[in-house]
Amino acid sequence: MNTTALGKSELQVSRLGVGAMTWGDPAGLARLNPAKLAYGSAHGFAEERQAVEVSLAAGVTLFDTAAMYSAGASERRLGELARDKPVVLATKFPPNPLSRAEHLPQALDASLARLGRRSVDLYQHHFPSRRIPIPQLMELMADAVEAGKVRAVGVSNYSAEQMRMAHAMLARRGIPLASNQVEYSLLHRQPEVNGVLEACRELGITLIAYQPLASGALSGKYGPGVRPSGLRRWLPYFRGNGLQALVPVVRLLREIGEPYGKSPAQVALRWLIEHEWVLPIPGANAVIRRQA
Ligand SMILES: NC(=O)c1ccc[n+]([C@@H]2O[C@H](COP(=O)([O-])OP(=O)(O)OC[C@H]3O[C@@H](n4cnc5c(N)ncnc54)[C@H](OP(=O)(O)O)[C@@H]3O)[C@@H](O)[C@H]2O)c1
């Protein structure tokens, strides 16, 4: 697995990451979080440990989580599994939708405690909100970098305009904006037309592609008559015309991959990796390991 710098930061990452959104064992109401409801119940510690080991053995070192995933349970699990391993940890602020920018220092310390680390490799702003002004947040991000608690700064779900603002604010402090994590897959091509991919290329910012397999729709497992379990089955990809529309896409992915012994999912991920500035983070689970 090749490595590359994340944007113009000093952080070296693999060209493919792993999304740990559904990992960990949440308690209480956190069990009802949208990701768990969408994808089904927890994989469990042993499976997630194996996913980390298999990934590292294949040279995949970047793992993505967020303070908001299962109210911190995903961070806690990833921290536990990554201990003493060469794992590059990416997490996100804020811990809940009501947080304000000034909560960042406290939230960062809480994430570090859950991850069991002195610094976060990549600290990302999860999504823009009126409660969190970008200039104020980027000043706090820069403070965290200077304090040695954050190695690289990223954003997520930012428009091209918001990215440019964050980039400019950080540049004043001599810090690069390393990444913007947005939805991007063969079935979701918005970054190509909304200016985000172009701004990434122009400014040297990595586009971290989330849901790179369109929530599993590009895996080849689903089609008319075969829908996933969990609330995910109600996504447009997995019902009515959406399922029908998957048929030619998956057929083509198979045709492309078969001569090389590659699965539709591998071809779909490779298509993203072929873009110089794009780094996909598929969500891993046990089924993937069995196929690997
Ligand atoms: N920043 C944000 O706002 C945001 C939002 C959403 C997600 N994310 C990040 O993106 C990551 C990935 O997103 P996601 O899990 O929702 O979508 P995804 O990666 O597009 O889809 C995950 C699903 O794809 C299937 N899959 C994955 N690898 C496969 C392989 N090698 N072969 C066959 N099937 C494979 C599995 O489906 P089955 O379960 O059907 O086997 C898995 O559950 C998350 O973990 C999170 O870190 C970020």
Helix/strand layout:
Elements: E1 3-5, E2 12-14, E3 17-19, H1 34-39, H2 45-57, E4 62-64, H3 73-82, E5 88-93, H4 104-115, E6 120-125, H5 134-146, E7 150-156, H6 160-172, E8 177-183, H7 190-193, H8 196-203, E9 206-210, H9 241-257, H10 264-273, E10 278-280, H11 286-291
Parallel strand pairs: 3-4, 4-5, 5-6, 6-7, 7-8, 8-9, 9-10
Antiparallel strand pairs: 1-2
Helix pairs in contact: 3-4, 5-6, 6-8, 9-10
NADP nicotinamide-adenine-dinucleotide phosphate is lined by residues 19-21, 39, 64, 126, 156-157, 181, 210-216, 219, 221, 228, 263, 265, 281-283, 285, 287-288, 291.
Overview of the structural elements:
The chain has 292 residues and is of the alpha/beta class. It has a single domain, classed as Alpha-Beta Barrel (TIM Barrel). The chain is built from 11 helices and 10 strands. The protein has an 8-stranded parallel beta sheet. A two-stranded antiparallel sheet has the order 1-2. Helix 4 links the parallel strand 5 and strand 6. The longest helix is centred in the C-terminal third of the chain and has 17 residues. The protein is globular. The site of NADP nicotinamide-adenine-dinucleotide phosphate has 28 residues, from helix 11.
